[in-house]
Write a structure and sequence with these properties.
The chain has 304 residues and is α/β, with parallel strands linked by helices. The chain is built from 8 helices and 14 strands. It has a single domain, classed as Metallo-beta-lactamase, Chain A (4-Layer Sandwich), CATH 3.60.15. Helices cover 16% and strands 23% of the residues. The protein has a 7-stranded mixed β-sheet. Strands 7-8-9-10-11-12-13 form a 7-stranded mixed β-sheet. The chain binds D-malate, manganese (II) ion and zinc ion. The site of zinc ion has 7 residues, from helix 1.
Length: 304
């Protein structure tokens, strides 16, 4: 179609907790709390995409969604009465940072909620989400590999990436790199351009490599700088991989796995507040920059 341009706005570039996190005095959060301009404040994980600049699809609905909408003029209601340029929402998993914002969308606005059957089942088992009234919010199950158009001219395909069940559903031994409907990446295509959105991914796979090779822009899991960071900084007991996130650096990391894709624009999203690459001018930020990656910030606009 003519005149269509694939655009994305990073509504929230942080991981769960945001930056600074409400209860955190880690190295990065301390700088953020003190107003140090080297660390931007970041809200939790969400992306808006459009091909006409008029109608938008939300990829993930973060607990900060209300604030993200007020901060983003393209998402403000227009005209009179009650309506919104947000016409559809698609969570990539059922993590709190990706679905809690659905509750912000409860004011009887017609919307389509697209998700895998697995994610829809998780939402259906939680009665609080029934506040999205079934007569206005249609829930549409999307199969992996099924191509559909949530907006005219914008095509979407979901694909499985290694991940785990949401933290709040963990029980017993947890498989941290399960490939199925629980954690998906989103292949977005419009105006002849292709963007991949993968805010959570436990490890690289050959099929993901093939998708990256065919994309113009990739927004990818930037949760941790290195796998041991939470443990080393005394912030927790889990590695990044245990949390279902491959690290930016080190063996099996994203910078290593993406090194072959020099021609693809690479942007980290879903960045945890413990990640020192969030400190502008730090050696870690410089290393990410040297590896050819951008670190997303809230309000970042991307023309694919
Ligand atoms: C994650 O990305 O690992 C989750 O969002 C963690 C959480 O639920 O806080
Ligand atoms: Mn998360
Ligand atoms: Zn912190």
């Amino acid at each position: 179609m003519n005149g269509l341009e694939l655009r994305a706005i990073v509504l929230g570039s942080g991981a769960g907790g945001g930056v600074p996190q409400w209860n955190c005095r880690c190295r990065v959060c301390r700088l953020a709390w003190s107003g140090d301009l080297r660390v931007r404040h970041r809200t939790q994980s969400s992306l808006a995409v459009s091909v006409d600049g008029d109608r938008w699809l939300l990829l993930n609905a973060s607990p900060d969604l209300r604030r993200q909408i007020t901060d983003t003029p393209a998402l403000h209601p227009r005209g009179e009465d009650r309506q919104s340029p947000i016409v559809a929402v698609l969570p990539t998993n059922a993590d709190v940072d990706h679905v809690a914002g659905l509750l912000t969308l409860r004011e009887r606005q017609p919307l389509v909620l697209h998700a895998t059957r697995s994610t829809l089942d998780t939402l259906a088992a939680n009665r609080i989400f029934d506040v999205l009234a079934a007569d206005v919010v249609e829930r549409r199950a999307v199969g992996l590999g099924e191509v559909f158009e949530p907006l005219p001219g914008l095509s979407i395909e979901l694909f499985a990436v290694p991940g785990k069940v949401p933290l709040w559903l963990e029980e017993g031994d947890v498989v941290t790199d399960l490939v199925g409907e629980g954690t998906v990446g989103v292949a977005v295509e419009g105006g002849g351009r292709r963007l991949l959105y993968v805010p959570g991914c436990a490890r690289m796979t050959p099929s993901l490599e093939a998708r990256i090779a065919a994309a113009h822009v990739v927004l990818f899991d930037g949760t941790l700088f290195d796998d041991e960071e939470m443990i080393r900084e005394g912030l927790g007991t889990k590695t990044g991989r245990r949390m279902g996130h491959m690290p930016m650096t080190g063996p099996g990391s994203s910078t290593e796995a993406f090194a072959a894709f020099a021609g693809v624009r690479k942007i980290f999203v879903h960045i945890n507040n413990s990640n020192p690459a969030l400190i502008e001018g730090s050696p870690e930020a410089d290393r990410i920059d040297a590896a050819g990656w951008d670190v997303a910030f809230d309000g970042m606009e991307i023309v694919a």
